[in-house]
Amino acid sequence: MDVMSTANIPLDVEGAIDHLMNFLSVEGVTGEEAAIAAAVSEALKKAGVPASAIRFDDANTRIPVPTQTGNLIVDLPGTKPGPRLMFSTHLDTVPLCAGAKPKREGDRIVSDGTTALGGDARTGVALLVVLAETLIKHKLPHPPITLLFTVREESGLHGARELNPAELGGPVMCINVDGQLASELIIGAVGQENWEVEIKGKASHAGVAPDKGISATLVGALGLAEAKRTGWFGKVVKGDEFGTSNIGIFGGKNGKPAGDATNVVTDYAFLKGEARSPELSFATKIVDGYEAAFAKAKAEVTDHEGETAEVTFRRAAAYPPFKLADDAKVVKRATKALELLGIKPTYLFSNGGLDANWLDRAGIPTITIGAGQAEIHTIKEFVKLDEYEKGCRLGILMATLED
Q: Which has fewest Cβ within 10 Å: 201, 260, 266, 277?
């Protein structure tokens, strides 16, 4: 396609919206993607994709939490020579989307106000189906293309993490659809390290013999206070290095309270948090700061005999950071496509993880584009249909551009 033909990209806008409405109405919270995967497979077959080109991998057998199905992978043979491209998105939604009832209101799609909508990332799911349908229906020239629909993105990027790159046919770049505005190109994202601490204190009657107890709750509270005092909590800046951290869970385990009576010194507490940074090594330093803080807190809380709590600190890398070079082919391709559409691109670095983090780690430079999702993970979520249309046009153009 050249500059003169971009205005005539053969996009069936109403058909594309119909696909989106359909996929928004199919439940598929994280880990329970079988129904939405089946709906996508059926739509692709109706669009002309042979059943033999649609398959599932076995990533779900390696995901450490129950997951109904593997990643959905679709192979579109090229109609012209060229390096293989990949388009990706995720099938799952957050639990708040369960039971979503999408409805169209003017230039938006919204929920009924009792659930989130699921535009994150059903906009991407619909875009990938629209892409395949448009390429096939209009016989548009394109190189070989892989479509990847991942599972469990919302609960830890598990589908992308457990993906076997050999399943993908050797794409040289990937366009991931999981953003808001079509003009916003996400070219990098932070890495994350998770931490948790288990504190076993000693119970005692809080009114009769408080000195004979060891409060696990107090150890946890002092540990957090120490992390804050030493600059490791919240926004973290140490010299030229920076990142963020947070405590998410403070209580018992498995959603239970740390204690159930005010007259008993709490003998158990469980805390779980995270650290993020553009450099995973600095995320590790932040977690080091938390570990030192809880060690200090342990020493400060004793019973009448000088005994301390048992404090067990654990950590695990969640996902690696990445940043695409300004001259990366996928960045240049996306920039060119936006410019042909008359859209000025902006380049973003995300403070949250994406499937792109793991795809890039697998050797597939991945840019993330937007297709209209907004106010995600809330009951106010909506899809901007003009941005969804722009995203669809951007996808079609990126698939058909000359190298």
A: 260
> Per-residue pLDDT tens for 255-278?
787 778 899 999 999 999 999 999
Q: Give pLDDT tens digits for 98-120.
A: 999 999 999 999 999 999 999 99
Q: Tell me, what's the pLDDT at 162?
A: 97
The DSSP secondary-structure symbol of 214 reads B
Residue 275, strand partner residues: 193, 245
pLDDT digits (tens, 9 = 90+) for 140-177: 999 999 999 999 999 999 999 999 999 999 999 999 99
pLDDT at 402: 86
- Listed residue (99, 48, 101) closest to 74, CA to CA: 48
Question: Are 267 and 201 contacting, i.e. CB atoms less than 8 angstroms apart?
Answer: yes
Looking at residue 336, its pLDDT comes to 96
Q: What is the structure's pLDDT at 7? A: 54
Residue with tokens 């993880």: 353
Residue 324 has pLDDT above 50, yes or no: yes
Nearest by Cα to 136 from 147, 122, 125, 148: 147
The Cα 324–Cα 37 span in angstroms is: 30
Distances (CA, A) of 177 to 4, 90, 363: 26, 8, 18
- Give me 183's structure tokens: 């003009």
Residue with the two structure tokens 């929920």 = 111
- Residue 327 is classified by DSSP as T
| pLDDT > 70? residue 139 | yes
According to DSSP, the residues that pair with 93 across neighbouring strands are 29
The residue behind tokens 């012209």 is 80
What is the token pair recorded at 9? 């990209």
239: left (phi over 0), alpha (psi -120 to 50) or beta: left
Task: Look up residue 92 and give its two tokens.
Answer: 């799952």
Cβ partners under 8 Å of residue 346, min gap 6 = 183, 184, 185
Q: Which residues contact 195 (CB under 8 A, 6 or more apart)?
A: 272, 273, 274, 275, 287, 290, 291, 313, 314, 315
Bridge partner residues of 191 (DSSP) = 277
User: Apex CA 78: angle with CA 3 and CA 325, to 5°?
Assistant: 60
Q: What share of the chain is helix, strand, coil (3-state, %, to 5)?
A: 35, 25, 40
DSSP β-ladder status, 145-150 and 72-76: antiparallel
Read off the DSSP letter of residue 29.
Answer: B
